[in-house]
Amino acid sequence: MTSEETSDWFAVKWMYDGITYDSTDILRKAIKAGEVKKISLNLDGNWTLIEDFGRGTKGRELPAPAMVQATTKRYGLDPKERFVSWMGFEFYISFSHVTGITLYDIRFKEERIIYELGLQEALAHYAGDDPMQAPKAFMDTFFSMGKLMFELVPGYDCPAYADYLDTSFSENEQTKVRNNSICVFEYTADHPLQRHTSSSYVSISRNTYLVVRTVSVVGNYDYTFDNIFYLDGTVEVKVRASGYIEGTYWSTNSSREYGYRAHDHFATSIHDHVLNFKADLDIGGTSNSLVRVGVEAASIDYEWDYIHPRNTMKLSRTLEMTETGLNWPANSKEMYVVVNDDLENSWGEKRGYRVMPGTGVGTPSHLTVQNSTILGTSAEWATKDLWVVQHKVRLTFVSARNSKLLTNIRIPNRAVRILRTGLRCRIQ
């Protein structure tokens, strides 16, 4: 559209069934000449049902096994303060209508390990051979993912015994409430956390964990977000996507390069989902560094050895000195560990937390498209699996009375509360 006036609008080209026509007149002539094969509409029917209730395997009518809370709940929940405690973990739940929930001040055994953990952006980048799919990309926080957190279904979204919290936001000068849009519950996995059997005893630990769950419905996608806390101090973020297909017309041209044929004239659309989470780690304080621990093949001469050299492997440790983007290495040959340089145990080992892919997700994906035409530089964060950045902000203090620049101070984000009346702050 080159103008706000509809009289100025015109069609540049037409595309039908994978064939492009350079003008409206050319398309009309092709239709009159019988050169355009009319394709049928993609109409709703049984094939679009999410679940087929007409058929079912034997036993489907019986209730499935379900977890129960046999005793008093073992976690603490303050609905007013949004404070949760469980098995040495403590944290606060915050809410934004844009990104949903963020967890703050996560502590384990009374020591902070994470200051902030939450979603930053959710990207869906499509591809296709038509002018609808080829330039399609979504930044889902644009749709306000927190506002799209709706009521959870007990017994399905969360166990029936879970606790639920409401969320609220302002819209059109009114407060809107989403009832039961956050659930908190304890659950037990179908496998032990650890076990060992010897000739005289069996040691085994039940793998019980705490979950804070929300579901955000963005168009055709239902994103289920889990913040999971394990007995060994592990914290995991897990996302599952459900819903229905964001599809396109099937054409005989090159649709197989972009998806699969799902009906007469309906095709799936290849796309990447990349979700960005911020984890501001405070391991024993704010003096943290990232160390790459590599597992390297090596050929080494040992003085005691009768084989020279011996082919083996060893660890290498490299301190990451610059802000950078990283990918998960093939064969897990490198581990990324956030350590505190000032804290060592009695054997000289630094205290730290390993950052790694989540459980059950295979190889996490980052954006396949290189130099995205539609996104430009707005999604550079999606091109790598992991970004390591120094957490800081620049504050510019200006006198509120005469707008005179006072000073530039580079301070940690958590020190913003030092501001006083009579000063304005611009965060860069």
Supply database-style keywords.
428 residues; mainly beta; Beta-galactosidase, Chain A, domain 5; 7-stranded antiparallel beta sheet; 5-stranded antiparallel beta sheet; 1 helix; 28 strands; globular; disordered C terminus
Summarize the structure.
The chain is an all-beta fold and 428 residues long. It has one helix and 28 strands. It is 2% helix and 46% strand.
Characterise the protein shown here.
By secondary structure, this protein is mostly beta strands. It folds into 4 domains: 1-35, no CATH class; 76-282, Beta-galactosidase, Chain A, domain 5; 285-356, no CATH class; 397-427, no CATH class. The protein is 2% helix and 46% strand. It has 1 helix and 28 strands. It has one helix spanning 24-32; strands spanning 14-16, 19-21, 76-78, 83-86, 89-96, 100-108, 111-126, 137-139, 163-171, 174-188, 194-197, 202-205, 208-218, 221-230, 235-243, 248-249, 261-263, 266-267, 271-281, 288-300, 310-320, 324-326, 334-344, 350-355, 386-388, 393-399, 405-411, 423-427. The strands form 8 sheets. Strands 3, 4, 5, 6, 7, 8 and 19 form a 7-stranded antiparallel sheet that branches. Strand 4 (83-86) and strand 5 form a beta hairpin. The protein is globular. The protein starts with 13 loop residues before the first strand and ends with a strand. Residues 399-428 have low confidence and may be disordered.
